């Protein structure tokens, strides 16, 4: 059965290249998926005004990014750190992640159909979603005659490099958007979000770079080009999503400064009241 050999159409095309090793096909397939997602994300960012995004669209993007973020950090972590690839499990897990992202896109498009482009996107997403479910069901039923598992050491070093690259790239994108915001409107919500993101993301980059330089001997380089490339793009994906961490960190810092300022101001008023009361008591005596 062909599905015992292929995970999807992309994998079928990759298998036609005899120069690609059997144990590299899955890594290449996942890498191509990440590149496609990053390309779509970049094109949308470049060709759409940030102020045209609805709250629902922003939330959908964040949730879709979070799904792949958790997939990389929780599911793919074993392969990245230990090098152990349980081929069938990884294929099923990858397709589950892909189908969840497609489902989020389908739900959003159904609720926000406004143009023919969105209708076409809905049809394509739906077809891919059904194919993913079909592949998942078939793969779960496969017990014998499947590719052997394998071990590929290293990859954490490339992941760290990719993370730093993605984290820096997304902050450059943020600076690109900031120049188009209304600087004369101090209550602009987008301006506040971007400013907090810049502050938090800058800290994330500095701390991450310092941690990497201090412990880089503990991170292993992968000599396998397919795994090394995959981990590089996994790192880029996580680095791009780290802008959410930057926003949260920037918000926490703002709240902390506000709370500290409020407490100091409160203490200052209390000291003034205390001194005034003492002065009144002395004057009365």
UniProtKB/TrEMBL annotation:
Which domain of life does the UniProt lineage start with?
Eukaryota
Instruction: Give UniProt keywords alphabetically.
Output: Membrane, Transmembrane, Transmembrane helix
UniProt keyword Transmembrane helix, yes or no? yes
Q: Where are the transmembrane segments?
A: 26-47, 53-75, 96-113, 119-138, 159-181, 193-212, 232-259
UniProt-recorded name of the protein: Uncharacterized protein
Protein source organism: Paramecium octaurelia
């Amino acid at each position: 059965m062909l599905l015992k050999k292929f995970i999807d159409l992309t994998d079928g095309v990759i298998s036609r290249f005899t120069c690609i090793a059997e144990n590299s096909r899955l890594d290449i397939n996942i890498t191509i998926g990440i590149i496609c997602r990053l390309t779509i994300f970049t094109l949308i960012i470049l060709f759409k005004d940030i102020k045209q995004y609805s709250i629902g669209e922003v939330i959908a993007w964040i949730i879709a990014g979070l799904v792949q973020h958790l997939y990389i950090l929780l599911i793919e972590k074993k392969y990245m750190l230990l090098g152990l690839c349980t081929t069938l499990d990884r294929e099923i897990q990858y397709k589950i992640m892909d189908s969840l992202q497609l489902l989020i896109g389908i739900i959003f498009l159904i609720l926000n159909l406004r143009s023919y482009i969105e209708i076409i996107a809905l049809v394509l997403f739906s077809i891919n979603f059904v194919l993913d479910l079909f592949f998942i069901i078939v793969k779960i039923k496969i017990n014998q005659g499947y590719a052997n598992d394998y071990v590929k050491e290293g990859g954490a070093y490339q992941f760290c490099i990719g993370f730093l690259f993605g984290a820096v790239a997304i902050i450059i994108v943020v600076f690109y958007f900031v120049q188009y915001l209304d600087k004369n409107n101090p209550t602009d919500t987008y301006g506040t979000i971007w400013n907090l993101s810049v502050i938090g993301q800058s800290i994330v980059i500095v701390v991450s770079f310092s941690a990497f330089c201090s412990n880089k001997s503990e991170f292993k380089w992968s000599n396998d080009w397919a795994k090394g490339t995959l981990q590089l793009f996994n790192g880029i994906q996580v680095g791009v999503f780290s802008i959410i961490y930057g926003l949260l960190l920037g918000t926490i810092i703002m709240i902390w400064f506000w709370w500290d300022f409020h407490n100091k101001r409160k203490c200052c008023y209390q000291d003034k009241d205390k001194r005034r009361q003492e002065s009144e008591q002395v004057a009365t005596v």
